[in-house]
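Reopening this one. Same input as before:
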Amino acid sequence: MIAQKKALTSVAQAATISGKLARFAAELRFEDLPQDVIERARLVLLDGLGCALAGSATEDLRLIRESMLAAVGCDGDTLLWGTSSRAPLPFAALANAAAVHAREMDDFEGCLHSGSVIIPAACGVAARVGASGKDLIRAIVVGYDIARRVLEGCGGNGPLKEAGWHSTSICGGFGAAAAAGCLLGLDAQRLQWALGYAGSNAGGTWAFIADGAMSKRVHPGFAAQSGIQAAYLAASGVTGPTSIFEAEWGGFFPVYAGESAQPARAIEDLGQDYRIRIVGFKPYAACRGTHGSIDSVLDLRSEFGLSLDSVERVTVRGSATHKKQLAKQKVTTLLDAQFSIPYSIAVALATGGAMLDQYSESALRRPEILEMAGRVDLVVDPSVVTGEQPFIDVHLKDGRVLTRRTLIPRGDRRNPLSEDVFQAKFRANAQLVLNEKQIDKLQSSIRNIVDVANVADLVACLRPVSV
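Same output, byte for byte:
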């Protein structure tokens, strides 16, 4: 009777959303993955590590690393990417995740920014356990899939953002837990517990936007750290909730998503439609919400030879979300600039670009850029719904008004970056820390990731060395 009761309980637990996600993660093999999914995982790894190297060179990351080392009071076994320092795995994952996210160049359309959470968590655990490149790719695919599915189960990013939740940290921990759990070889039951812990520890709000606080950088770090700790707790047999998503009292979807939740979407086409396929890659070092505006201005600049001297003012007709999130004209911090359509339009007009050199502490002090940003007004247009791109009206000093709207900005899977642009982005990011020989070695290792016997060898390439 007792054995029968246990069996029935196990079946009931497996029937929950977390049970189905855990079973998918536990049973998926590298050999099951379609070739395009493997290639996408390789690309997100390359992009994520390049972004991490660029981010590791910022003042924000110096402070974050300093705080981690001060908190733990000792060295650890996990590399702090872009440096020669090490810290205990969960703390190193926090700092490395913050590095991926620091320049606002990490991938999008996952759980917002899946790479900033999944890549540090997966690489950290893989290097510790000596996993192979194939093991890492499998874990990345699982992590991206589950993190995105949790977001979809919430009804998408829109309702979460409207409520003030930051989806990257709210949903990313599930993906980190799943990826880490796969690399630790957890069975379905323990992976389910790990997902339960990820949901129990989810957090992160948009409060940083008001004053451009550095906390946004740390949000993916909290999720990566939480996911790793969740996997290790489960591995040790510390049980977690098995109905984390649908429990009436304390369930993730009821608590975080409320009426917007669509739980069935979390398991729709599970194991058939891999969510990593929808991920896009940023061509500009700013919030993705600015990219349509940047594309439009760069196109008009090229077509009509625009300059700061020829433009009287610019009107951006966007959604209420654009107004709330991206309308700041007077920028004082780097995050302000990265989340400012007025600033982004000003630098695009002035320089013809919006890459790392235009989003730096020194760059955002230029008087001519700040003056132009003050002449860019963002107004709400009821015809532009949240998630759509704004209209850009450029008023010229000769009286003409040029209007442009970019429906699908560059970098989206439907408007992808060329291979040359993608690789150039990686090298531009990596060269802030590594020399050309080191970059070539890292690039080659990722290109041949399925042949890598031990991921620790790949991660070692992220340590700058003198030659």
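So the earlier flakiness isn't reproducible anymore. For the record, Confidence is low (pLDDT under 50) at residues 4-8.
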